[in-house]
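Data deposition worksheet. Section B asks for the primary sequence of the deposited chain exactly as it was used as input, without tags or linkers unless they were present during the calculation. Section C holds the resulting structure in token form. Section D is free text for depositor observations; keep each observation to a single sentence. Incomplete worksheets are returned to the depositor.
Section A, Depositor: J.P.
Section B:
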Amino acid sequence: MTTLRLGYSRIGYEVKTYFRQGDSVFFTFLFPLVMLTIFSVAFSEQNFGPDDAPLSAAAFYLPGMIAAGILLSGLQNLGVDIAGEKGDGTLKRFAGTPLPVLSYFIGKIGQVLVTGILQAALLILVARVAFGVELPTEAGQWLTFAWVFLLGVITSAILGIAVSALPRSGKSATAVIIPIALVLQFISGVYLGFSQLPTWLQNVASVFPLKWMAQGMRSVFLPSGFESLEPGGEWNLAGVAIVTGIWLVVGLVMARMTFRWIRKDS
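Section C:
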């Protein structure tokens, strides 16, 4: 109970610290909103749906931006943040305190969950109010949104903890981790229609969780006619759960093997 209480208390601290860092707020919290706005305005005259069912650019890009926001809040933000704390000695100081590692993780994952919810809510609100996007009306669609979002947040956060071991120093963290997140966004149907990508690139993207998170979000926000454009001609929500769940387990194993308060080479 002490571990859980300490972890819960750290969530508030982590959220406050997050919003005090201007670069983190822009490149993880506001970046998907900026990109949604740019695409919605730039392609405002283009129809992304069939002739008999017009679809605006804002409606087309909203699911991908929500999925990208989850990845940025988890993998990118935590990966850079934890690597920075290793580099500036914060984690080394934690090693000399009674703070359990689990409490530290609860604080970080809780921060990703809170900021992810706020980010998704902001994206949906702007899409609806500013660009007139029609939102789902069925409870089942919002239930799908909830479990895809929650599974995606936890998986991305755990992977962020795991990839924080890649940079050799805090200064190199952004150069190592941000390109990974950026490439995944381009090949996973966030900025480009997934069906427009070459088959071999679709196969590569299908190995990683972002493609499946974006696909799960498309099943919630896009009309049913877009299902035929997905690989196999279906939303394949079972695949979304399986692949994302596998990456959650992989992330847990990697984090367990690589995370240390103090680097071995320090």
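Section D:
The longest helix spans residues 57-87.
The mean pLDDT is 90.
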